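If you are new to this repository, start here. Below is one unmodified record pulled from the training split, so you can see the exact layout before writing a loader.
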Amino acid sequence: MVYDLFNIFLNTLAEKTKSQKLRFIDTLYNYCENKFGYGSLDNALTYINIDLITQICESYFIHLQNNTSDNNINVTETKWKASLDFLLNTLRMISKGNFDNDKINDLTNKFNRIERLYNFLRINKKKSLENIRSLPSELIEYLYCLLDPENQVNNPFKPFRTRWQTYIIFIMLLHLGLRRGELLSLPVNCIKSGYDNRLNDFRYWVNIENHHEDIDERYNKPSIKTLTSYRQIPISKSIVNLLEYYIREHRGKTHHPFLFTSQKGFPFSMEMTNRLFIKISKFIPDHLKEKLFNKNGKKIFLLMILDIHVQ
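And here is the target side for that same chain:
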């Protein structure tokens, strides 16, 4: 029966596409023979075994996805569509005239479900492996010591206020996973709190959103890039204490509402942040600098590793 319907299916195609379709369907049959056993595809179609057909669709799609190259995506996509069309058309032809109306309606709904599930699947390019961007523990420990505001000997920055602001920036990038734009958009009153009755204690967080865009006079305005970047981030009491101390003792009075400020009282800029970490990078010992190289030997700027967007 399947053989006869297979010929009917081929006769509906243009002559120039028949040979290609035959190759694609033959590939599907060979896959099913190896994966599910001899005659498995014919049996699934003849007896309209929806569970097995669904399993075949899922398994074959994953097989195609895992065994294609970026150069053959279009061919593999065509192969997948041809196989799915063959399965659905054959199922619909087999069901006609062999069942009562209720059964046909039930099968039609199941066929439509298969079509909805698998018709829009696309073969995607393989993603290249990303370089590990997290800082190794020994480098983190070194940076903690280097940027300690009380470290008057080795700290790259001489003004006490600059040492404190740099330390706070480092802590927030490292522990909150903020990007530069998110960090520099924070207002001075960014700390939010609320009493949690379940914990019988206060909880603290910061809201990541575009703050005071209308009055931001910076040339390169920091901003939130995507909708998924708008979020609440819980913060520990220890970081809250550090922030409150910085605001109270070292931020100073300014004409703007942003948390971080330059020595002249202007909002801290993206360029200033870059220069900050370029200077820090120069103080990292050679044996730790090797940790900032990727597999191609290209140096990774320290801020690039800290400046990670958390999904």
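Two things worth knowing about this chain: Residues 128-132, 294-300 have pLDDT under 50 and may be disordered. The radius of gyration is 31 Å.
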